[in-house]
Amino acid sequence: MQNVSSRTVVQIVAVLLLSTTALAETITLRDGSKINGTITNQTDTSIQVKTSYGTLNIDKSNIAAIDFGGGTPSVEPHPVRQQTSGGYGSVAKTPGEAKPTKYYTDDVAGLGLCLGKGAGALGLYGYLRPIDNVGFELDLGKRIFVVMNQNTGETELFWPNMVTGKVALFFSGRQSRTQFGLELGGIVAEDAGPGAELAGTLRMRVSRSLNFDMNLGLGAFPSQATSTYDYFIRKYGVIPDWYTFNGPSVFIMWGLGLGFSF
Questions:
Q1: Does the pTM exceed 0.85?
Q2: Domain final residue pick, 61, 80, 99
Q3: Does residue 48 have a pLDDT over 80?
């Protein structure tokens, strides 16, 4: 067996050390500074680098790129993940990737069908929500007006028009899955005249663009008697002798709606 001289051993060790130094990584931080060293360990959030002046732990979010020795291209070790504005069910995205589909729309405006809700028995509603916690709504529909003909004992059924405009204050943003709020509205009903409502409102995001709405509160028609008499005059030309009504009307304001948001 050929003996290896101590000088040869030293030369081999020197070559290995030089090779290790030549292949050391160059880490570029996001502020532009560079660190030369060898990566000895890493986790999901940080790497450990051995340098000539000690061992450093570097947060991956602070790293712009790592250039490995030996001509290996620079890489992005830990891309910064930015939250999209997709609301409930949204996903994070990496810079440079295609923007992911949001689970919910921004819910800035919407249209829907409703029962009650200030539109009467059946109607349409539309809303506009220009800022996160404030919205405006318009309800249009037909009321059910049922009275008993005291002369014949028969029930009279009418379908007067009704319109309600509301301002709503929400306690959560447009992207929330469940949104509670308070609404104040002005009412005009063909048979009952002008009125007002104060109610609580709830909006639930059923799917990406579909919302379920409901409201519950109180409404009032302070001049219903006069307005109803005027309504009968428009219908019959005279006030029916069998109809009598006195005083204002206070009632429960409720509603259910299913709307498509934009």
A1: no
A2: 80
A3: yes
